[in-house]
């Protein structure tokens, strides 16, 4: 009778010595394969006397089980080790700074919009949007600018004409204010939105572009008043220009959609070809604002006896030029790579109030 104990320890030792999964597989074939050692032993059973065959067969089966178990354990151990080695070899240092993108930059307009959204976002404003092609009704009439209103002239409107040459009451929006109309028609107060986006006017020189950008703000509830408007905008300009004690003033003004209306100026000093913001005796106008005209509320389906609120609007190019010292408006749209490299922002610098708006 063959001594399976000795065989078992021999196989166990060889399995333990297998240094990788390939060697282990070769060993499995050598022991359990078609011509393997145990298979060959099994074949000899037929030559034995019945009693002996039974005992020997049982011993071979136990041996086979033991070898299979050992192979399984070793396979697991080698697999774990291979995985650990691979993970160690493929480790990357995530604390390494990202490779700088050599050419591409975030355009100052995009950067400024991100900054505005982040500041007003922290104050609880949601971002609303509207289409660039707007109806005359939303762009003007429901903002209390009826067809004969003189304010229409000041807007240098692009009126859209159909293929037949006729006008169907659509314009390229001249301001972001129609998003106020859409928001009020579409949702119930309380409303607290900002609407950044493209705007169009038929006007072109060093300080005007036919396509420019504005951001609109709208707050409607039962109690918001002029002092909330002031608090909100003062907080905003100080955060945006990153000047905590920035001086400002509100001047009475006129907009058809607000009553009373005001314009906000920030202090500045000019001299030696330099513009310093936040201090001094000169003033720079930066936005228009006011309490939403009750007529506008009514035309937008909100009961002015129950609700009130404020609105504001400003030019994005204008505040970007002031903040980043960009002298000529036209350069924003020239797609000049040298300009973009100078005034643009790295994609990895995402503006947040906590992390710093622009570095
Ligand atoms: N829509 C105005 C413009 O384009 C800007 C503006 C002024 C918006 C006052 C407002 C506001 O919401 O209250 O000139």
List the uncertain runs. none
Distance between the termini: 85 Å
Q: State the secondary-structure class.
A: alpha+beta
State Rg: 38 Å
Shape category: elongated
The mean pLDDT is: 92
Strand content: 15-25%
Question: How many alpha or pi helices?
Answer: 11
Order of helices and strands: HHHHHEEHEEHEEHEEEEHEHH
Q: Would you count the extended β strands for me? A: 11
User: What bound compounds does this protein have?
Assistant: 3,4-dihydroxyphenylalanine
Helix content: 25-40%
For the largest beta-sheet, the strand count, sense and barrel status come to: 8 strands, mixed
Question: What are the defining features of this structure?
Answer:
elongated; alpha+beta; single chain; 359 residues; binds 3,4-dihydroxyphenylalanine; 11 helices
Secondary structure elements and pairings:
Elements: H1 4-17, H2 21-32, H3 37-43, H4 50-89, H5 108-122, E1 126-127, E2 133-135, H6 136-139, E3 159-161, E4 167-172, H7 178-186, E5 191-200, E6 211-221, H8 226-241, E7 248-255, E8 258-271, E9 274-277, E10 282-292, H9 294-299, E11 308-315, H10 316-324, H11 337-343
Helix pairs in contact: 1-4, 2-4, 5-10
This protein binds 3,4-dihydroxyphenylalanine.
Description of the structure:
The protein has 359 residues and is of the alpha+beta class. The protein is 39% helix and 22% strand. The protein has eleven helices and eleven strands. It has helices at residues 4-17, 21-32, 37-43, 50-89, 108-122, 136-139, 178-186, 226-241, 294-299, 316-324, 337-343, and strands at 126-127, 133-135, 159-161, 167-172, 191-200, 211-221, 248-255, 258-271, 274-277, 282-292, 308-315. Strands 1, 5, 6, 7, 8, 9, 10 and 11 form an eight-stranded mixed β-sheet that branches. The chain has a three-stranded antiparallel β-sheet with strand order 2-4-3. Strand 7 (248-255) and strand 8 form a beta hairpin. Helix 1 (4-17) runs parallel beside helix 4 (50-89), helix 2 (21-32) packs antiparallel against helix 4 and helix 5 packs across helix 10 (316-324). The longest helix has 40 residues, at 50-89. The termini are far apart. The mean pLDDT is 92. The structure holds 3,4-dihydroxyphenylalanine (DAH).
């Amino acid at each position: 009778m063959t001594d399976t104990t000795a065989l078992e320890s021999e196989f166990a030792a060889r399995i333990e010595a297998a240094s990788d999964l390939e060697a282990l597989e070769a060993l499995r074939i050598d022991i359990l394969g078609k011509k393997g050692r145990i298979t060959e032993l099994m074949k000899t059973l037929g030559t034995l006397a019945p009693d002996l065959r039974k005992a020997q067969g049982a011993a071979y089966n136990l041996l086979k089980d033991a070898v299979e178990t050992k192979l399984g354990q070793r396979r697991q151990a080698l697999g774990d080790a291979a995985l650990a080695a691979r993970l160690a070899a493929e480790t990357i240092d995530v604390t390494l700074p990202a490779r700088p993108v050599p050419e591409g930059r975030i355009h100052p307009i995009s950067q400024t919009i991100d900054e505005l959204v982040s500041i007003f976002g922290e104050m609880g404003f949601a971002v609303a949007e509207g289409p660039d092609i707007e109806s005359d009704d939303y762009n003007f009439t429901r903002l209390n600018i009826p067809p004969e209103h003189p304010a229409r002239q000041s807007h240098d409107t692009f009126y859209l004409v159909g293929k037949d040459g006729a006008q169907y009451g659509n314009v390229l929006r001249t301001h972001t204010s129609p998003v106020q109309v859409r928001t009020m028609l579409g949702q119930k107060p309380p409303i607290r939105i900002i609407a950044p986006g493209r705007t169009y006017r038929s006007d072109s020189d060093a300080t005007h572009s036919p396509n420019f950008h504005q951001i609109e703000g709208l707050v409607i509830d039962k109690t918001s008043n002029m002092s909330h408007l002031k608090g909100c905008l003062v907080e905003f300009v100080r955060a945006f220009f990153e000047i905590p004690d920035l001086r400002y003033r509100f001047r009475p003004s006129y907009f058809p959609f607000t009553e009373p209306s005001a314009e906000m100026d920030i202090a500045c000093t000019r001299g030696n070809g330099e513009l310093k913001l936040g201090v001094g005796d000169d003033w720079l106008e930066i936005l228009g604002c006011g309490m939403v005209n009750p007529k506008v509320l009514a035309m937008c389906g909100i009961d002015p006896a129950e609700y009130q609120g404020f609105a504001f609007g400003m030019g994005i190019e204008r505040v970007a030029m002031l903040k980043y010292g960009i002298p000529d408006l036209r350069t924003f749209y020239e797609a000049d790579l040298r300009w973009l490299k100078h005034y643009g922002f790295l994609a990895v610098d995402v503006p947040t109030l906590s992390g710093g708006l622009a570095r």
